[in-house]
Design goal:
mainly alpha; 1 helix
Length: 81
């Protein structure tokens, strides 16, 4: 009485079916193409940040050197007068 009634299992055709078109697999949108994409992205981001920091330090050093040369010439010019 309480047991579910299962449908009859359909019989499969016995004739062989030949596909007319070749199927080209399409990569799924949910999976990344490489398993290391996250690691590669992290390395690229760290490289960009370190390069930007190095450029900032270099620009600061050049600015300090130019300021030192200008101050030195001003002090030497004031001492000669």
């Amino acid at each position: 009485m309480f047991r579910p009634k299962l449908p009859d299992v359909p019989t499969l055709p016995t004739a062989s079916v030949v596909p007319q078109q070749t199927h080209v697999p399409v990569p799924s949108a949910g999976r990344s193409l490489t398993p290391y994409a996250g690691a590669v992205a992290a390395v690229v981001v760290v490289g960009v940040v370190l390069t930007a920091l190095l450029a900032a330090v270099a620009i600061t050093a050049i600015s300090v050197a130019i300021a030192a040369v200008v101050l030195r010439s001003l002090v030497n010019g004031a001492n000669r007068r």
